[in-house]
Write a structure and sequence with these properties.
HotDog_dom_sf; alpha+beta; Acyl-CoA thioesterase; hydrolase; five-stranded antiparallel beta sheet; single chain; three-stranded antiparallel beta sheet; about 40% strand; about 140 residues; 4-hydroxybenzoyl-CoA_TE
Length: about 140
């Protein structure tokens, strides 16, 4: 299974007045991490959208478990992987480490979306390309 890791330093603007990361900032980091994971696997988001005629890859569900807070200046490691792939949706798991300790477990569901063939003004889910499935599931 393909796993991507990246190190992120917590910036002043990520924190609330208590100097801990304001939780929506983590979700922006997770969104970036998913895009970076695709690029690391050899599939830039822009290339996928053009090659397969997609409009985007929106997040349709997300949640997180916060175990350890982070503050300005801390370094964290975000480990991202695709946990499962269905016809047009996929599940991403992000694990955030602060040193060796698990700080956050986050989960997102995304869907490949293209234009509806009968009505270009509407959107429709699109099938997940086999070459991308193979890359993520075989590592």
């Amino acid at each position: 299974m393909f796993i991507n890791r990246r190190d992120v330093q917590i910036q002043w603007g990520d924190c609330d007045p208590a100097n801990i990361v304001y939780y929506p900032r983590y979700f922006a980091m997770f969104d970036d991490s998913t895009s970076i994971m695709f690029e690391a696997a050899g599939f830039s988001k822009q290339d996928i959208i053009h090659k397969y005629g997609l409009v985007g890859i929106p997040m349709v569900d997300t949640r997180a478990k916060f175990h350890i807070p982070s503050t300005h200046g801390d370094w964290i490691t975000i480990e991202s992987r695709i946990d499962s792939i269905k016809r047009s949706s996929f599940e991403v798991v992000h694990r955030v480490f602060k040193g060796e300790a698990l700080a956050i477990e986050a989960f997102e569901t995304r869907v490949l979306v293209g234009r509806h063939p009968d009505d270009p003004g509407k959107l429709k889910s699109a099938p997940f390309p086999q070459e991308i499935i193979d890359r993520f599931m075989k590592g």
